[in-house]
Every structure is written in structure tokens, then in C-alpha cells.
Amino acid sequence: MSINEKIMIVEDDPDLSELIRLYLEQAGYDVIKTDQGLHAVIECKKENPPDLILLDIMLPDMNGIEVCRMLREHSNVPIVFISSKQEAEVMVRGLEWGGDDYVLKPFHPNVLVAKVKALLRRVKGQPSEQLEFGNWRYDYKTAELFVGGEAVPLFTKERQMLEFFLRNPNQVFHVEELHQAIWGWDSLSNLGTVMVYIRHLRKKIEADPSKPRFIVTVRGFGYKFIMDHKK
């Protein structure tokens, strides 16, 4: 029985694509398949877009990372890369361009289904409200950041980090805790990635990133988000 969440498989190996489809449908998801990256971009512009995309790196019409880049211009749909490409540079590029996870082939379909469920739970668990802070506000429903009334684009991990802070205000988190919460224990990134994204996020929401008001450093402990807002 369908659970009314639609997964799109973008994979040019028909046997693997069909195997993934069978496991996802058994888990209750609606599934659509394609071997064309451009098709995925088009589907995400429709009225009823996929809730999550499983995206191969090597596709007949274009590179999966380029597909991800194009999707992030207008969509925050969760993206899980599935690829045999094991080079760290390729994996990091995929995640930096907005991928939410990366699964190496070969993999057991049950593992992939578990990742899909976990990622969709995380997305569904986000509050459906707008929060306003000084001259910026965040809209959970559309996953958009507005600064001075203007929309400011967020990469996927920036969005996830901001939402994590918003859900857990006034709490101190070690770098390791932030890394695990946003990237997961099996991520290919290192702890330095957390500081990089903290800097990126501060540049977007802080009036003076060198003297942050919202994402503050607790020396010797980590970071915390100061909840000082009006709804």
C-alpha cells in the first residue's frame, strides 16, 4: 500500500533500477524511473514533484553532479547519490553541490531503503512555520531564507545546519555533534567541514560575521544558536 511519498530513481542500469524499485515499492513508496538527468530536472518543476531522488553520477545525457546543481537552482528535494565512483573528490563535489547522502555501489537495497526512510523522516519533522530574526527570516514550508526581504540561496547542508540550530536553540553543540547530526557518522567529510559551513552560514545571516549575534562560538565547547526572534 502506498504511503504517498514518491521516489524518483535516476539510474541507467536497468537491472539495478528495477531492483531498487521493487524494494522501495515493497516499503510502500510510489516510484518513477528514468535514465535521463534532464528528465529529473523537468519532473521537479511539475506540480507534483518527487519527494526524494536517487541519482546516479554517470548518466547517458549528463553528469549526475550537474543534474544536482541544476536541481538546486529551484528545488530542495532530498538527493541521494548512488554511484560506483569511489574517488573522494567526486563524492565531496556531489555533497558540496547539494547532495544529502552518497551510497557506493554495490550496496544492499535494504540499506538504501533505510537511508531513504531516515532522510524523509528528517524532512517531515521540520516545523511548518516562519521564524523571523532581525532582518532575516526562514520559511520552513518553502525552505527559503530571506535577508532584507530578498531570497538568499542555501546549499543543502547550509539549510540542514540552519534548521538544526533553529530546532535546538540556546544549546551548545560540539563540532563532533554537529558533524554527526548534519553529515552522519559514515560521511566522507571531516570535522573541518563544520567550521566551513558555519562561516558560510554566518556570512548569510549575520550583519557582521566577525561578531556573530546568532551562531556564536562557545570557546572550548562548540557553537550555539541564540534564540532571539519574533514570529
What's the layout of helices and strands?
Blueprint lengths: L5 E5 L3 H13 L3 E5 L2 H7 L8 E5 L7 H8 L7 E5 L4 H9 L4 E4 L4 H16 L5 E4 L2 E4 L4 E4 L2 E3 L3 H12 L7 H8 L9 H14 L9 E4 L3 E4 L6
Parallel strand pairs: 1-2, 1-3, 3-4, 4-5
Antiparallel strand pairs: 6-7, 7-8, 8-9, 10-11
Helix pairs in contact: 1-5, 2-3, 6-8
Fourth CATH level, the homologous superfamily of the largest domain: Response regulator
Instruction: List unreliable stretches of 5+ residues.
Output: none
Number of strands: 11
Please give the domain count: 2
Fraction of residues in helices? 25-40%
Describe the global form: globular
Strand order, biggest sheet? 2-1-3-4-5
The Rg value, from CA coordinates, equals: 18 Å
- The mean pLDDT is 86
Task: Identify the CATH class of the largest domain.
Answer: Alpha Beta
Question: What is the compact description of this entry?
Answer:
The chain is an alpha/beta fold and 231 residues long. 38% of the residues lie in helices and 20% in strands.
Tell me what the structure shows.
α1 crosses α5 (109-124), α2 packs parallel to α3 and α6 packs across α8 (192-205). This protein folds into two domains: 6-124, 3-Layer(aba) Sandwich (Rossmann fold); 130-225, Orthogonal Bundle (Arc Repressor Mutant, subunit A). It has eight helices and eleven strands. The termini are far apart. The longest helix has 16 residues, at 109-124. By secondary structure, the protein is α/β, with parallel strands linked by helices. The mean pLDDT is 86. It has a five-stranded parallel β-sheet, sandwiched between helices. The protein has a four-stranded antiparallel β-sheet with strand order 6-7-8-9, with no helix packed on it. The chain has a two-stranded antiparallel sheet with strand order 10-11.
